[in-house]
Predict the structure.
Amino acid sequence: MKIKTTEFVISAVGPSQYPEGDLPEVALAGRSNVGKSSLINKMLLRRNLARTSQQPGKTQTLNYYLINEELFFVDFPGYGYARVSKSEREAWGKMIERYLREREPLKLVLQLVDVRHPPSADDVRMYEWLSHYGIPMTVVATKADKVSRSQWPKHLKIIRQSLGMPGHVPLVLFSSETGQGRDELWSMIAQAAGIAPNSPSEPANIAQETENNE
């Protein structure tokens, strides 16, 4: 995918703030520190469009990023952060559930999990919820550069088994450091969103991102 334009549009907390129109939307869900901001930056070849935070759990809104005037990335609050109050977690949960069940432009959910560790109970709940409602999804195993190549099959097998993923659900190995999985993920996004993948894509090393404290 050739990235021509990108911009942060709005931090929304409800339907009244969602962008108008029918541009396709791709949502990103995952635990705090899983690397959502770094993935967005790498996918868009921008260094700091999505800001990484030294304070996990800081994102409390649905953050909209417009790409090429034809597609939105929607970044969810990170789940599973212990210091967030129960009432805040419940409010985030209702906001996210309403979006996922009612937002017509939503075409795909990228559920991010850390390839280094077995999926958490929160990861499993999110996966089961998306599966129950038949929401199109791709599971993205982040931080691939933190695990040796020889260990990739083992870790991916653990993710599939822990989540109960059938073979037809895509699982993409991704690294925001090396660009591993970027082209594959863009191909899936373009297909789900019904947009033409503009190729060739820019070199993967244009913007090197870190995945720390996200």
